[in-house]
Design goal:
Helices cover 38% and strands 22% of the residues. Helix 3 crosses helix 4 and helix 7 runs parallel beside helix 8. A seven-stranded mixed β-sheet has the order 3-2-1-4-5-7-6, with helices on both faces. The chain has one domain: Rossmann fold (3-Layer(aba) Sandwich).
Length: 237
């Protein structure tokens, strides 16, 4: 495939083989976008920086953390970012993509079927508030991600219950304020979780500031969390 219009920053982050798969993914998402509106971030820098680069930089710039060969869950996966991006760059990991929109999970199933991913990938159409109370899901994942889903306190209530004791939650945030930091600390205290680390970069091509917040369990999360569907969103802890 031609490598036209791919920002040079991408070549610094992923391999030629991975770029080829991301190009294939871009073509398939465009085809699906013609039938059902999945995302507006599909051309040029919108795809390569705002989707691909943004999804994978936390995993490629944290050398002190092992992200390979993990059980990974993406909450609110949308058209597959960061979930499918992580799958491409970590082919030995087992991937679970969760979204409450059937339109989006139907599209994800087509992408998984038509692109030759090396991972075992499972697409689930359900609310994470329901899934997190299932024994097969609770305390069962090494990594959980959320991107463009909700505020940090709400998504931490989704994440902490599904993470293994040594698991890691990866929250993608734009701006990050002292108030949000205090709210997250308060929420994590209730959930028996803890803040691990924050990383911040300026995305290339003037695509804005990106903060990544790493959180993890401290002890077993109380059984009542996450609360019923809608509660974490309407009334953050």
């Amino acid at each position: 495939m031609k490598k036209q219009n791919i920002p040079e920053e991408i070549f610094e982050l992923i391999t030629e083989e991975e770029i080829n798969i991301f190009q294939e993914l871009q073509i398939k998402i465009k085809e699906l976008n013609n039938k059902t509106n999945l995302t507006r971030l599909i051309d040029g820098d919108n795809y390569w920086i705002s989707q691909v680069f943004d999804s994978i930089w936390p995993f490629r710039t944290s050398p002190n953390i092992n992200f390979d060969n993990k059980k990974f869950l993406d909450i609110g996966s949308g058209c597959g970012f960061p979930g499918l991006a992580y799958a491409i760059t970590h082919p030995a990991s087992e991937i679970y993509l969760v979204d409450s929109s059937k339109k989006k999970t139907d599209a994800l199933k087509i992408l998984v079927k038509e692109i030759n991913f090396r991972n075992n990938i499972y697409v689930i159409n359900d609310r994470i508030e329901n899934l997190a109370h299932q024994s097969s899901m609770r305390s069962n994942f090494d990594i959980a991600t959320t991107r463009a889903v909700s505020n940090p306190s709400t998504v931490s209530e989704y994440m902490i219950p599904i993470l293994k004791n040594e698991g890691l939650g990866v929250l993608y945030c734009g701006k990050w304020t002292d108030e949000e930091s205090k709210n997250l600390d308060k929420t994590l205290e209730i959930l028996e979780g803890k803040f691990k680390e924050k990383k911040m970069i300026l995305l290339p091509k003037n695509k804005g500031i990106r903060n990544i917040i790493f959180i993890k369990p401290k002890n077993f999360c109380p059984e009542i969390y996450p609360r019923k569907v809608g509660k974490p969103e309407k009334n953050p802890l």
